[in-house]
Design brief:
The chain has 105 residues and is mainly beta. It has one domain. The strands form two sheets. A five-stranded antiparallel sheet has the order 1-9-4-3-2, with no helix packed on it. A hairpin with a 5-residue loop joins strand 3 and strand 4. The model has no long low-confidence stretch (mean pLDDT 90).
Length: 105
């Protein structure tokens, strides 16, 4: 599975009931990868290209659990929000994003 974020594929990025497993900087700090386990216990990754306005506000928790995830087109960029309820949130803006299975399925 590999899905590029667009107006048509935006619903695929609504990953409610997902655990945050990890966070990585890529491409000399221009890109961000979020590693998640979705509600079906599948490992997935969201790779965001040319990230700006990154805000990470998470309380200590070994595996934050998402309450809501959303992607919204703002001008020529995307605003992504991963809401972990009382644990906090991750927000960012990016040029593009790709959702894919961590196992390449």
């Amino acid at each position: 599975m590999r899905v590029e974020l667009s107006e048509l594929t935006e619903p695929s990025f609504r990953l409610c009931d997902a655990f945050l497993e990890g966070f990585s900087w890529l491409n000399d700090g221009h890109d961000v990868r979020l590693d998640l386990t979705n509600g079906f216990q599948q490992a997935v990754q969201i790779t965001c290209r040319w990230v700006t306005n990154l805000q990470i506000e998470l309380k200590p928790n070994p595996k934050p659990f998402s309450w809501e995830c959303s992607a919204e087109k703002v001008g020529d960029r995307w605003h992504l929000l991963l809401d972990f309820a009382s644990t906090g949130s991750i927000q960012l803006e990016c040029e593009s994003a790709i959702l894919e299975s961590a196992t390449g399925d």
